[in-house]
Amino acid sequence: MKYAILPMPPDLWPAVREIYAQGIATGNATFETEVPDWNRWDRNHRKDCRLVAVEPIDRKATETPAPTGKVTVVGWAALSPVSSRAAYRGVAEVSVYIAAAARGRGAGKALLRALVDESEENGVWTLQAGIFPENVASIKLHQSCEFRQVGIRHQIGKLGEIWRDVLLLERRSSKIGI
Questions:
Q1: Helix or strand run (H / E) with residue 108
Q2: CATH class of 4-127
């Protein structure tokens, strides 16, 4: 299936929030146990590099920067800064979430590829991802977009009462910071 990848406007937050909640419910997407409100989410993510994948309902939904018709959001991707220190201004952490009904249909790859391009346009030279080892689909998705595993953080945090490992993956740009 072909998806339109668009900048994430704040008015799509309810759909983004629902997809985030579905990811949290899997128990394998994040240490978060509740979806934050818009203000907290907005503060913790870069203002650029926020994308949604949508299934167009009409042909105008594939236009950018924003559709004029109704759309169904099937996924989102965004970057968070890893540090406020100037040396790390080109390093960001990736979040990619796909609606349960759309998983395995290519939306994740379309989003992550677009996010890589957008990140490079905005001066990001390293993307990093922390993924639970059990989240095999996410690991494969990132690897398909040139992320490589650089380590594992053993029992780095608890989700509920269970200690969880996190695989560290990163992608170094071949265009920025070389």
A1: helix 107-121
A2: alpha beta
